[in-house]
Amino acid sequence: MSKDIDEIEFTIFDTETTGLDPKSGDRIIELAAVRFKGENRIAEFQSLVNSGYPVSLGAFSVNKISVDMLVAAPKPQEAIPKFLDFVQGSCLCCYNADFDLGFLNNELKILGLVQIRDIPVVDVLKIARMVLPGLERYALWFVAENLGIKVKQEHRALSDVELTLGVFYRLKEIIKVKGIVDFDKFLELSY
Fold it and tell me: What is the torsional sign of CA 84, 88, 93, 97?
């Protein structure tokens, strides 16, 4: 039986990292999420994560998260399971899922936990490409601006989640006008 998009609990999440490549040792240093159903926010999650791995200059220049900020932060073995509990039973959603899921699955692997596979994940970036063809670029801030969202992207996990949530809502409105209200059809747009 199909469900309306507004009947599904989603969790939009975002990561900030020490660099761009988990295969070279880069790690998550911030994790945030907002859980919602329809227009109703259910809960929010935010945590810095002390992976013990140095933050690259490139990453610091973007997210402004310093090693000093991470000293008192929870270790991955504490933060990641709390995040998994938070998202349990919801449909994961993010902007550029390959990046964020790649880092999350890397952390799960390091911790000896089951990686996220075979569950629905909505990639808002892929939906933006389908719904807004021909944009000059598809960076989150650019898509948001084209949808009339005038919020500066701060490159911190929770603020990026908030921006992604705004883009998600605008794209959902456009999709509904086109007659797509079924969750399965909506999910197909992100593959």
Answer: positive
Map residue 156 onto helix, strand or coil: coil
pTM: 0.96
Taking residue 165's Cβ as centre, other Cβ atoms within 10 Å add up to: 19
In tens, the pLDDT along 4-19 reads 999 999 999 999 999 9
pLDDT digits (tens, 9 = 90+) for 143-181: 999 999 988 899 999 999 999 999 999 999 999 999 999
In 3D space, the residue among 146, 132, 140, 141 whose CA is nearest the CA of residue 175 turns out to be 132
Domain 5-188 belongs in CATH node 3.30.420.10? yes
Domain ranges of the chain: 5-188
- With beta carbons less than 8 A apart as the criterion, state whether 140 and 11 touch: no
